[in-house]
Amino acid sequence: MVKVYLVEDEIIIRQSIKNSIDWEKEGYEFVGDASDGELALPVILKEKPDILITDTWTSMGEEAEKEERKKIFKDYQINRLITCGLIFFGGIGFLVWDDVAEHKWHVRRYLLHTKIMLCATFLLLACSFALFLALEDGAAFAGMTDGEKALNAAFMAVTPRTAGFNAVPMDGLSEAGAALTALLMLVGAGTGSTGGGIKVTTFAVVMMTVWCVVRGNSETVILRRRVAQEAVYKALAILVISLLAVALCSGTIMLVMEDYHLSASGLDVFFEAVSAFGTV
């Protein structure tokens, strides 16, 4: 009988491939599965499968991975920084760049939208960078140098809201890191940009509305400017509708998986639903 082994880091995809095919009926022996090459290699050497189903990128052992990481970090750190820059410029929004191009360094002349977008973007980048650095130190960033950790944290802080690239295997993220990534995907990029999500300005208006209500203010004030009630209601409506859509998608995925006798954690399902919603 032909032996088959599966290596795939996405748990839902791995479970789907594993459980949706009657391997014995089709004349195959399914000898196992793994999330990365380091876990798969000992089994592959032992079982010697005839067919190996694998992802396009797979870790292949601790020592080999360390050497490969050194080479990648040396050769591609500039490329990764350039990629971050391009993603940032594409996600900030054409409305913002048009305003900045018109008024140059005269910040006081910027539209309120531009000011909110720039402040919220830099705040999101700074907070997510610090959180990824702290949360993944013993998880996805384990064994990396300080420079690699900083570069990957910066990359992960930028990409989830717009591009969806990943510098480390997603199944290696801690649960908190995966939840943070999902939150960033939900927030998305700027209005009139190349990214998805509910938009940064929508998130900022909702957060500032909550802050103003907590402080006892009846109006939403951002950067000493009052936000129209109509804009506040629209932001709240967008957030609620988006969360309902994600919840509906998550529930549908779990029902379908149950019908096909597949299993995945609630966080994995939520992550995939948010990823689809944010087009990341």
Summed up:
With 280 residues, the chain is mainly alpha-helical. Helix content is 60%, strand content 8%.
- The number of E-state strands comes to 5
Side by side, the strands of the main sheet go 2-1-3
Number of distinct helices: 10
What is the residue-mean pLDDT, rounded to a whole number?
86
Low-confidence stretches: none
Distance between the termini: 40 Å
Q: Indicate the percent of residues in helices.
A: 55-70%
Shape assignment: elongated
SSE series: EHEHEHHHHHHEEHH
Strand content: 5-15%
Write up what this structure looks like.
By secondary structure, the chain is mostly helical. Helices cover 60% and strands 8% of the residues. The protein is built from ten helices and five strands. The strands form two sheets. It has a three-stranded parallel beta sheet with strand order 2-1-3, with helices on both faces. Strand 1, helix 1 and strand 2 form a beta-alpha-beta unit. Helix 7 packs parallel to helix 10, helix 8 crosses helix 9 and helix 9 crosses helix 10. The chain is elongated and about 70 Å long. The mean pLDDT is 86.
